[in-house]
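Researcher: Next sequence.
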Amino acid sequence: MIYNKFIKDKKKIINMVHSGFAQHHIHKKKKNEPTKLFDKLVYLAGLVTVILTLPQIKNIWIDKNAAGVSALTWGTYFAGAIVWFSYGIVHKEKPIIYMYLAWMILDALVFIGALIY
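Model: Next structure:
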């Protein structure tokens, strides 16, 4: 009697798993509207901050003027961008990956330019 109940319960659990009932923990949650909006805001903020760094790069590389630019500061920014980029990859966070890839490039350009000029 106990054995038959165990077999029935086991079959019930197997059917639940195969039907998807018990698989909810492996699926990503659907994002609600405020979360989607915030994701878009993060992309926009990343893009705007990257664009605002371009005049600094122009001053260094086109005008060949790095006066007042600290290589130590921009080297530290570059190191921090590497850490954040790695974090984004490990956690599969696209906004972080894209934003810090751009920052790594820009920080490297300013850092190297500050060293040269």
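Model: The radius of gyration is 25 Å. The chain has one domain: 32-116.
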